[in-house]
Design goal:
The protein is mainly α. The protein has eight helices and two strands. The chain has helices spanning about 5-20, 25-35, 40-50, 70, 75-85, 105-120, 125-130, 135-140; strands spanning about 55, 65. The protein has a two-stranded antiparallel sheet with strand order 1-2. The protein is elongated. It starts with a helix and ends in a 7-residue tail after the last helix.
């Protein structure tokens, strides 16, 4: 299974904020650190803020901070939210699959997808930045709080 770019960015952004300490990097700084377009990062930040995982403050002294809820968020729940409820394959697309009425593959893929999410459910954002990952994240940051 391949994650959407927005899912990947959301996870990396949360990890980056989890090791930021007292620093509050801006969306533009985080986008630069991760080499992604600012507009894409801004959309992901807005979704994370809506979910209550990130606080975003504008203006002087502003920036992004991880909330307590963000630190303990389940990676499985995050991936489910960003990936949506869609099936792994599109059996109903522009050209519906002729096997649709008697296919067993769709159910097997759905179970595999759920097993993937279930394996990520117990993992939290805090777990993802445990050593040695946290120090590495700080080392690759170009913004405030970088080592």
């Amino acid at each position: 299974m391949r994650l959407l770019r927005s899912t990947d960015l959301a996870l990396r952004l949360l990890m980056r904020l989890a090791v930021a300490g007292d620093a509050s990097p801006t969306t533009r700084e985080v986008a630069g650190d991760m080499d992604v377009p600012y507009t894409h990062a801004a959309k992901v930040v807005a979704e994370l803020q809506h979910m209550g995982l990130v606080d975003a403050r504008r203006g002087r002294g502003g920036g992004l901070t991880l909330t307590g809820k963000g630190r303990t968020a389940s990676v499985g729940a995050l991936v489910r939210t960003f990936e949506g409820d869609g099936d792994v394959v599109d059996c109903e697309g522009a050209t519906p699959c002729p096997l649709n009425s008697a296919c067993r593959l769709r159910g097997a893929l759905r179970r595999a997808q759920e097993a993937f999410f279930a394996a990520l459910d117990p993992v939290t954002v805090a777990d993802m930045v445990a050593e040695p990952t946290g120090a590495l994240l700080l080392g690759i940051s170009k913004g405030p709080g970088a080592v």
